[in-house]
Amino acid sequence: MLSIKNIHANVEGKEILKGINLEIKAGEVHAIMGPNGSGKSTLASVLAGREQYEVTAGEVSFLDKNLLELSPEDRAREGLFLAFQYPVEIPGVSTTNFIKAAVNEKRKYHGLEPLDSVSFLKIMKEKMKLVEIDQSLLSRSINEGFSGGEKKRNEIFQMAMLEPKLAILDETDSGLDIDALRIVANGINKLHSPERAVLVITHYQRLLDYIQPDYVHVLYNGRIVKSGTKELALELEEKGYDFITEGVDLNA
Amino acid sequence: MKENQDPLEQAVSNDYKYGFVTDIDTDTIAKGLNEDVIRLISHKKNEPEWMLEWRLKAYAYWLTMVEPEWANIKYPTIDYQDIIYYAAPKPKKQLNSLDEVDPELLSTFEKLGISLSEQKRLSGVAVDVVMDSVSIATSFKEQLAEIGVIFCSISEAIQLHPELVKKHLGSIVPMTDNYFAALNSAVFTDGSFCYIPKGVRCPMELSTYFRINTENAGQFERTLIVAEDESYVSYLEGCTAPMRDENQLHAAVVELIAMEKAEIKYSTVQNWYPGDKEGKGGIYNFVTKRGICKGDHSKISWTQVETGSAITWKYPSVILKGDYSIGEFYSVAFTNNHQQADTGTKMTHLGKNTRSRIVAKGISAGHSQNSYRGLVRASKQAINARNYSQCDSLLLGDKCGAHTFPYIEVKNKTAIVEHEATTSKIGEDQLFYCRQRGIDPEAAVALIVNGFAKEVMNQLPMEFAIEAQKLLTISMEGSVG
């Protein structure tokens, strides 16, 4: 589904990603872990197509298309979803209207008629249950005055509405208390299916108590320095990142 | 993937849908302004002597005045001798009903989304249509007359209701008020007149649609609305003009009078031709709008959505004379390319326990300059006067400007005046967030801007809110790449 080959990327002239390779197949859950500043969020932004990030080398194919040639909106319409670490506020735009616009843009791209209000509301009601989100939240301006947990839940709700092929969760666990974490993780698990892949980006292993990854990768200084199964995450939790980062040649 | 450096910059292209010219036989007089021209206008309109005298007095006063220079706008000197002061589509014969209106005119207004034919009329909205210097048609006149509401062109009112016009015309905006008001008083050609009798709640929206058609013609309309005790009226004006390289002048005066417990809600969707991308052409829009809450517990509410005109100079104001009266001003001003807007309001608190509320939203794109200018004044007698002002500016791109000039004059200690102002830019973060959800940049900007303007849009009558929202979206087309 997603194939990343030797990606290098700069931000403001500084190289952050220094040759990333990663293969994700449909149905798989991958976790990328790593210390702060290792390039985790940069990877997410590069995949989503953020313009401040300049890809200097490498290839990414997504569902057999050259991802790097697609605009951010087309990547989204193809089925790539990024749950933001810091979702932005858009005053005066209700969450419902925002999601409706997004859903219909995607349908238009795939040659489908826009959803009428009744069908849209029906689908919304179903998905609301998944992430235990409240109707009143959805009629408020998107993310405005939302608590940290509400913002993250709203991200997962949007994901449920957009039904992406690949969901990238950028530090979705940060700033969540244990209840919110459980709800968010539950939502993600319910959406997970054999056709869908999930890429979880996280600093801590605690989210992985709830979401079982098939593979865990450690990102350090712009490269994946170690890959393994779920046990790797537990090992990291126990020993800290030092046990991996020690001995990695920074200048190589 | 590398795209254009500044996606916002491109959002500012122009798609003015109303720029066509109607090819119609027009009765125009020669360019220039002098006493004879004013006599000619008055004669063509078959006006009574008092009206002509009034005009001449205004003209004499105007000659002694100088054009104001304090506004934050720049434009070449206007040559007042190079303007046509009267232009009227020639009627083929005397009209007995709307259905006899020239088909060319009907199709013009169809194109503008205003249907004049009896069957297709917007239900619940009575329309007076003014083209260049004259009113072409007014719908629902008879139905309104049955409940005592007078809704007609000001020319007709001068003929049929001279006492009412004489009593109120110039009582709120005197001819000596300012340069453009004096000019308007001298040469005004048409506009609307509404009179709502005591205790009547006007059952439909009253609306006037202003269209400039003739080249080099100026439009000088005059609107007067009188709401007697315990009456209510909601009035809306819209305006468009053809695309031309030359600037055209529009100088209007609007006066509102609300008696005891009366309420007037006045909404404007202003979409005069704004000029092209390089700033060539467009309407110079110099307008004086003022209302008085004369009676106790009366209310006047101005709502404006300003997207057109090369230059906008306009401060719809309220004089809060009656005790417990309320004045409101809700405004969205969108400027693009080289447009300049200096707009705001004046709230003058004279009565006790008067309240005013100002919500002004300025959106600037391209190379445009957008200024809010507002005055809140509370006199010594205005015990417990309250004002709340909120001025927000949104910038699209980094070549435009937003300015706020709030003036506050409070002469008594019991008055409370609050002013809040914010300036923000459409952030890369907001745009990217929308795009990541599959919304293209142009739709994203429209979404963000409409969200920003929502509080004001909500004040518009339902039928027009959707139109206004579309208009805002169209005006922004091309603002993003």
Topology overview:
The complex is a heterodimer of chains A (252) and B (481).
Chain A: E1 2-11, E2 14-24, E3 29-33, H1 40-48, E4 53-62, E5 65-66, H2 72-78, E6 80-83, E7 90-94, H3 95-109, H4 117-130, H5 135-138, E8 141-142, H6 148-162, E9 166-170, H7 178-191, E10 197-202, E11 215-220, E12 223-228, H8 230-239, H9 242-245
Chain B: E1 11-12, E2 26-28, H1 35-44, H2 49-63, E3 87-89, H3 103-111, E4 125-131, E5 134-138, H4 141-146, E6 150-153, H5 154-160, H6 162-168, H7 179-187, E7 192-196, E8 205-211, E9 222-227, E10 232-240, E11 247-258, E12 263-270, E13 282-293, E14 299-306, E15 311-314, E16 317-320, E17 326-335, E18 340-349, E19 355-364, E20 369-378, E21 386-395, E22 401-410, E23 416-425, H8 428-436, H9 441-457, H10 462-476, E24 478-479
Parallel strand pairs in B: 4-8, 7-9, 8-10, 9-11, 10-12, 11-13, 12-14, 13-15, 13-16, 14-17, 15-18, 16-18, 17-19, 18-20, 19-21, 20-22, 21-23
Antiparallel strand pairs in B: 1-24, 2-3, 4-5, 6-7
In words, what does this structure look like?
The complex is a heterodimer of chains A (252) and B (481). With 252 residues, chain A is α/β, with parallel strands linked by helices. Chain A has a single domain (2-245), classed as 3-Layer(aba) Sandwich (Rossmann fold), CATH 3.40.50. Chain A has helices at 40-48, 72-78, 95-109, 117-130, 135-138, 148-162, 178-191, 230-239, 242-245; strands at 2-11, 14-24, 29-33, 53-62, 65-66, 80-83, 90-94, 141-142, 166-170, 197-202, 215-220, 223-228. Chain A starts with a strand and ends in a 7-residue tail after the last helix. Chain B has helices at residues 35-44, 49-63, 103-111, 141-146, 154-160, 162-168, 179-187, 428-436, 441-457, 462-476; strands at residues 11-12, 26-28, 87-89, 125-131, 134-138, 150-153, 192-196, 205-211, 222-227, 232-240, 247-258, 263-270, 282-293, 299-306, 311-314, 317-320, 326-335, 340-349, 355-364, 369-378, 386-395, 401-410, 416-425, 478-479. In chain B, helix 2 runs antiparallel to helix 7 and helix 5 (154-160) packs across helix 6. Chain B starts with 10 loop residues before the first strand and ends with a strand.
